[in-house]
Amino acid sequence: MNLVICLLFSCFLRHVIARGAQRSTSLSSGFRNDSYAAITRHLFEENQSQPSIDIARGYMTNSELEKAVKEFGQRCSHISRIYSIGTSVKGVPLWVIEISDKPGEEEPEPAFKFVGNVHGDEPVGRELLILLANWICDNYMRDPLVKLIVENVHLHILPSMNPDGFSLRRRGNANGIDLNRDFPDQFFPWNDYEDARQPETKAIMSWLREIHFTASASLHGGALVANYPWDGTQDKRRNYYACPDDGTFRFLASVYSQSHYNMSLSKEFKGGITNGASWYPIYGGMQDWNYIYGGCFELTLEISDNKWPNAKELPTIWEYNKISMLNLVASLVKTGVHGRVFSSDRGRPLPGSITIKGINYTVKAGMAFADYHRILVPVERYEVMAAVPGYKSKATSIWLGEEAMTVDFILDPGVTSEGTLLQSICGCNCGHKSRHLLVDYFWGIHFEVYLVLIVVLAFLCFLLRRRIKFNLLKHRQSPKRSVMV
Ligand SMILES: [Zn+2]
Predict the structure, then answer these.
(1) Does the pLDDT of residue 31 top 60, yes or no?
(2) Cβ neighbours of residue 325 under 8 Å, at least 6 residues apart?
(3) What DSSP designation does 53 have?
(4) How many helical (H) and strand (E) elements, i.e. helices and strands, does the chain have?
């Protein structure tokens, strides 16, 4: 009897420690749900009955993870590539798997990233991400959802951001720094010096400068919920603190929780989602930094109530999360507004800014193709605006249904005089003086000659616009509802 009481107390203590380390304020909130706890107990039943077991047994070591990444790269070389974004404090490479039908090539497609093992003592994510990569490899051509992802998204997977913390079995990195507090913060700029940051944090920051990610998710343990910005509040109080895209994030977080086996059933978190600051505020987190500075919509996914469950639970946790992970990535192309921005004079891609009326947030179009991917709550009316310095902005009102929609913009140079417009068409460097000459000759003896010239120019202009439209159609990847503005 004493043994049973001892085991129960030990399990309770571990549960409290696991939560307390990451969720210190949730203990004081007073919420508790018996049915949710029952699900948790059922899920981790076996682990709780063996409290003395070596927790790392059955989990990949760092060298085994590296081997798994490289083996995957060889086995699935047709739809993937392997690269490193840097090294940890102890020099362990931070390996990334990119999955796409054209890995390493820039395309007018959205990019998504999964980051696992941010906290060293939360290793479930790194295992699930390797399973995810292999699942995609094995089911490409068989599963329509997987095919959609491979052909329309560039998926980047970093199984472990904190390999040193994993081998030390602790939350922080080898310097004992919590990497999810090491990013620049909108309210408290105490760690604004990039040189003072940890190498793992710097690697993530330069990764975002290199790749234009549309959305991402980091994987954690210790609870079962999809967390969204803001993570911090200005007055440091625990309150719901909505970011400009609160609705968008609630939608995105719900895509995950509603596809999950039991995340949305939580009574602790309504619908299995939570605003970070209303749960407990943090500062220097990766999630808010991604949204503010990276233009990337990031979620923090707590995928197992136990931070380090028995490895025997991994296949179950994978099954519970698999469809959620796939649906989250696929939501980038199945919903939202997508398109490209072009100049009307030469048909050049213009890497401009896209804004939505009523949402104080700007999405940048890509540099190479000027493609943009704007996640939005479906079944709503929006006014989408494209702006590029030196060009006249354009706005259009759309009805966004359940499916994704394409809205391409063709912007005119921001000029009004006929002479300058002619200049931009012919591409010559006509000065102010020659514009006067043009007007003089126009009404002079060569009137007929210039009339023919204008007709020819107008015809060329017509052909150019046709070519732009043709290019737009060529780049469209799915039978989305399309609008050209
Ligand atoms: Zn964590």
Answers:
(1) no
(2) 114, 128, 132, 256
(3) S
(4) 15, 16
Cα distances (angstroms) measured from residue 176 to each of 27, 87, 162: 24, 16, 11
| Span from the CA of 172 to the centroid of ligand 1 (angstroms) | 10
Asked if 302 is an active-site residue, the reply is yes
Dihedral of the alpha carbons of 445, 447, 452, 453, in degrees to the nearest 10: 90
Cα of 420 vs centre of ligand 1, distance in Å, is 57
Distance from C-alpha of 374 to C-alpha of 355, rounded to nearest angstrom: 9
Instruction: Give the C-alpha separation, 234 to 31, whole Å.
Output: 25
CA distance 41 to 355: 46
Q: Is the pLDDT of residue 7 over 60?
A: no
Spatial separation of the C-alpha atoms in residues 112 and 373, rounded to whole Å: 11
DSSP letter for each residue of 403-466: S-EEEEEEEPBS---HHHHHHHHH-----HHHHHHHHHHHTSTTHHHHHHHHHHHHHHHHHHHH
Tens digits of residue pLDDT in 44-61: 333 333 444 577 889 999
342 near 353, Cβ under 8 Å? no
Contact between 88 and 51 under an 8 Å Cβ cutoff? The reply is no
Q: What is the pTM of this model?
A: 0.79
Kind and range of the H or E element at 333? helix 314-334
**What is the Cα–Cα distance from 415 to 425, expressed in whole angstroms?**
12
* Pure H helices in 98-245: 124-139, 144-152, 163-168, 199-210
| Tokens found for residue 433 | 């003086």
Concatenated DSSP letters for 215-265? Answer: EEEEEE-SEEEEEES----TT--------TTHHHHHHHHHHHHHHSSSGGG
Q: How confident is the model over 228-250, as a mean pLDDT?
A: 95
List the structure tokens of 190: 């105490």
Q: Is the pLDDT of residue 464 over 70?
A: no
Catalytic residue chosen out of the listed positions 107, 122, 200, 302: 302
Distance of CA 147 from the midpoint of ligand 1 (Å): 31
Instruction: Output the pLDDT for position 179.
Output: 97
Domains of the chain: 62-334 (3.40.630.10), 337-413+466-484 (2.60.40.1120)
